[in-house]
């Protein structure tokens, strides 16, 4: 299968193929998830983060783990319950240049290309309805997923991870630990929360999708995802999200003012 191409904004993937092959020199030629974990070890990581316990508490037992090796670097896994996908992640381990820090060497990062949880036993989410992009309600286990992803970053010897949130509510989940690499995007996101918090995440996300969020000029705002990063390697975190970054975010936040029109 050919390599998938990604439309990154502020990061550039660097091809160090020799560094990221199937790691067959230490795994007896057997494929490992992200060149690191056997299927049993991946299951153990899901157990350690309490993802397995949480889905069991929601009525999903037994569950089955399936792994797909899409390309040398793109790997996917599912948790299945009666052939229904209840958790799906597509991950990519590679080296990336950070365009806003051109003097930094290419950095080994875990890209969270796709993540979806599905509460198929409670599909309609009740009276509140679904978030944009959902076909059924989510499982509500992001704290456990966050723990799992952090452990995976460490296990793969990456310096951190990143994702590109497709919707506002996706960014809100990741923002507990991740920040937008671009301070202008971070400021836009924080200003949305500041000005529209009373409406709740579900309504804000819907309103952005439907063109009902307006800036101070009355223009409709759209959601455009860009890279959100986390660094478990402290020197990188301090260099990238430094005092200048936070001052830029605060300055740009003062330029934003948003209102939401009811549907």
What characteristics describe this protein?
single chain; 263 residues; 8 helices; 30% helix; 22% strand
Cα-based radius of gyration, to the nearest Å: 19 Å
Number of helical segments? Answer: 8
Task: Specify the biggest β-sheet.
Answer: 8 strands, mixed
Helix/strand-derived category reads alpha+beta
Measured between the Cα atoms of the first and last residue, the distance is 44 Å
- Relative helix content: 25-40%
Summed over residues and divided by their number, the pLDDT gives a mean of 90
Give a brief description.
Helices cover 30% and strands 22% of the residues.
Task: Describe the fold and architecture.
This protein has one domain (11-260). Strands 1, 2, 3, 4, 5, 6, 7 and 9 form an eight-stranded mixed β-sheet that branches. The chain has a two-stranded antiparallel ribbon with strand order 8-10. It is globular, with a radius of gyration of 19 Å. Strand 4 and strand 5 form a beta hairpin. The protein is of the alpha+beta class and 263 residues long. It is built from eight helices and ten strands. It is 30% helix and 22% strand.
């Amino acid at each position: 299968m050919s390599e998938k191409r990604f439309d990154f904004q502020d990061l550039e993937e660097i091809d160090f193929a020799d560094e990221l092959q199937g790691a067959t020199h230490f795994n007896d030629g057997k494929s490992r998830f992200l060149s690191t974990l056997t299927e049993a070890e991946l299951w153990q990581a899901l157990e350690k983060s309490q993802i397995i316990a949480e889905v069991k508490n929601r009525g999903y037992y037994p569950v089955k783990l399936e792994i797909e090796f899409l390309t040398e670097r793109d790997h996917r896994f599912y948790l299945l319950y009666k052939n229904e996908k209840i958790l799906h992640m597509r991950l990519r381990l590679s080296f990336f240049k950070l365009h806003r820090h051109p003097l930094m060497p290419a950095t080994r990062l875990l890209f969270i290309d796709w993540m979806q949880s599905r509460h198929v036993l409670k599909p309609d989410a009740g009276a509140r309805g679904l978030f944009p992009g959902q076909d059924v309600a989510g499982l509500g286990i992001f704290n456990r997923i966050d723990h799992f992803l952090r452990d995976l970053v460490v296990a793969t010897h990456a310096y951190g991870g990143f994702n590109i949130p497709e919707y506002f509510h996706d960014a809100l989940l990741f923002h507990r630990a991740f920040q937008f690499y671009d301070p202008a995007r971070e400021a836009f996101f924080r200003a949305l929360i500041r000005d529209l918090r009373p409406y709740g995440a579900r309504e804000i996300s819907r309103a952005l999708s439907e063109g009902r969020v307006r800036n101070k000029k009355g223009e409709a705002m759209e959601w455009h995802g860009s890279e959100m990063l986390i660094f478990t390697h402290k020197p990188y975190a301090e260099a990238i999200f430094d005092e200048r970054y936070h001052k830029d975010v605060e300055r740009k936040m003062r330029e934003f003012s948003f209102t939401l029109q009811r549907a």
